[in-house]
Amino acid sequence: MQRFVLVIGAGQAGLAAGYHLARAGASFLIVDGASRVGDSWRARYDSLTLFTPRQFSALPGLNLDGNRELYPGRDEFAGYLERYASHFEFPIRLNTRVVRLCKDDGVFNATLDDGSEIRASEVIVATGGFQQALTPAVAGQFGSGVLQLTTQTYRNPHQLPEGPVLIVGDGASGRDIAAEAAQSQSTILSTGKPRRLFPERAFGKSVWWWLNVSGVLRAPAESWIGNKLKQSDAFPDRSRSFSALAGLGIRIAPRLSGASGSEARLADGTSAAIRTVIWAVGYRDDNRWIDIPGAMAADGSVLQRGGISPAPGMFFVGRPWQRNRASALVMGAGPDASHVVASLLHERKRPRARSSG
């Protein structure tokens, strides 16, 4: 068959892959289950902003307009992705969800939710690493009178009924949501592992400028610097330190250890009556649709190194720590996609270079 690349996902990772495929003159199609490009961002909570300022939040070939030092919001960035796809006139099919991906006689076969199929010589999976919000087992210990939301189902404080709110998880999203909830409700933030926050600016410049120019963000995942960054899991402060949150009236509490009815039990032996719980404890992948020998680990996670799968012809873009810390940020999508597309084109010249597992 004619060489043809299927890109699954039309978020920043898939669009960055499209940019580099188009530059290489490759034939490709991007598919996405959403009705609009950027909907993965529109589905997040209303006040979400990107980690990085606009100067570090653009994809290759098209700037993100606005103050370079400030952070783009959710809807602004979703609109940027839509403009990006239109600007480069990428071939995109929306409302098109892949429910099974298999491989027969060296050709990938993607079965769609409408029963039709797309055949491709190579596949780039760009569905990202934040697909399904986690809900821990302790959630089942709360009674039916407690409203339970996740970072995917929470939108704004208007959703919250009157009564105390418990946010479980003190990552960036958990802290953002706690600050919002505290404007109208008694709020508790249940913490987890120790986290480090870094300042937004240093010596008159964005700290991201320093991290970028120093090469820290490009340090390989397996390097000493990469390991240190993974362990610290740091993110910008932006008035989200514990002291700043406590100043908003938020109770900073230890880990949630159990629950019964409307009572939340904390690791320090205290408890609190709760009306709403918002789970902000991370995400998991849902890769059950991938049915490719050698592509998946025993625990269901994808196998890849630098975006290159051990299954020939299969690639990934948008995985956290795919190559470095920047891989989980918009600023890493372009370089990672460039690396993957170059590897894809190189593999076309050496079709037996990798084992199928």
Can you give a write-up of this model?
The protein has 357 residues and is α/β, with parallel strands linked by helices. The chain has 2 domains: 192 residues, 3-Layer(bba) Sandwich (FAD/NAD(P)-binding domain); 111 residues, 3-Layer(bba) Sandwich (FAD/NAD(P)-binding domain). The chain has 8 helices and 22 strands. The strands form 7 sheets. The chain has a 5-stranded parallel beta sheet with strand order 3-2-1-7-22, covered by helices on one side. A 5-stranded parallel beta sheet has the order 9-20-10-11-16. It has a 3-stranded antiparallel beta sheet with strand order 4-5-6, with no helix packed on it. α1 links the parallel β1 and β2. The longest helix is centred in the last third of the chain and has 20 residues. It is globular and about 65 Å long. The two termini are 23 Å apart. The C terminus is likely disordered. Keywords: Oxidoreductase. This is NAD(P)/FAD-dependent oxidoreductase.
